[in-house]
Amino acid sequence: MNMYASNLAKKTKLNWDDKLSLEFSGDAPQVTSLSIEKTEDAITVFLCGNSTVVDQDNEPWASWGQMIPRFFNDKVAFANYAESGESANTFIGANRLKKAVSQMKAGDYVFIEFGHNDQKQKGPGKGAYYSYMTSLKTFIDEARLKGAHPVLVTPTQRRSFDEQGKIKDTHEDYPEAMKWLADKENVPLIDLHSMTRTLYEALGVEESKKAFVHYPANTYPNQPQPLQDNTHFNPYGAYEIAKCVIEGMKAIHLPLINYLLPDYNGFDPAQPDDFNSFHWVPSMAVEVEKPDGN
Q: Is 177 exposed, middle or buried (0-12, 13-18, 19+ CB in 10 A)?
């Protein structure tokens, strides 16, 4: 993608300008007024990642990054800098890290989840223990220079079952490379790779489709073909994985958990929430084209 096309794409993103876009739909109460006040003391959690983290603009696509703010009080703000199709090095090359760093303050957090797209890069200097690890180290160093706390997050599993109903690891050495770096640099790590394996296996081969963008043809406008995506989540799947991330925070005792809302009752990936009890009002914004990345 050339620079002109890249800039044009950013202009269509709802989270890449200085405007605030709001949608009120379904059973939301009627809004008669809205007041927005600036606060200086909120902890900001910067999210850096790919399509499994990004604020998806259109349904049925969703990510854990856009669901997780629901569980925290107003002492924590989430700034989602993730973008579909990004690898750790392309994220840096697109100046996304530079933009995030320009907004950071001491005491903030930087969550870093890459791996899905990084493993597709081939050639000299590429690989889990080469360019990938070098790029992750850049995230860590830049965050620490600003007094922020880096947190590494291993990539979510793909929905890839074997004949025994177990998830097949498809990320090669990338999760282990991240773990090695976390240990070497003394950086907290959330092992989302392991938790999503547990989650998908608990749901099972067929039921796990309800957590992903799997829909029959003509479920949405201009959708003549079935949607069968085993990487990207729908709102239910994103909601469940956001809870996995929170449980990961609890496991490593991140102080952020002190700001969870009182109605968060914990979560066990081995016992997913019942899909039929998940209430979600669909957005008016729909897109059947698959996001970048796999």
A: buried
Question: What DSSP designation does 48 have?
Answer: E
How far apart (Å, rounded) are the C-alpha atoms in residues 58 and 281?
A: 13
The amino acid occupying position 264 is Y
Encoded tokens for 250: 């609890």
Q: What is the pLDDT of residues 109-142, one digit of tens each?
A: 999 999 999 889 888 889 999 999 999 999 999 9
- Residue the block writes with tokens 């006040």: 37
83: left (phi over 0), alpha (psi -120 to 50) or beta: beta
What pLDDT, in 10s, does the model give residues 36-81?
888 888 999 999 999 999 999 888 999 999 999 999 999 999 999 9
Residues 96 and 87: their CA atoms lie apart, in Å, by 11
* Distance from C-alpha of 57 to C-alpha of 97, rounded to nearest angstrom: 21
* Closest listed residue to residue 137, CA positions, set 182, 93, 99, 171: 182
For residues 120, 153, 39 and 30, what is the CA-based torsion angle, rounded to 10 degrees? Answer: 80
Residue 60: asked if its preceding bond is cis (omega within 30°), the reply is: yes
Any residues with CB less than 8 A from the CB of 33 and at least 6 apart, and which? Answer: none
pLDDT band at 282 (very low <50, low <70, confident <90, very high): confident
Residues 6+ apart with CB under 8 A from 25: 281, 282, 283, 284
Element housing 46 (H / E): strand 43-48
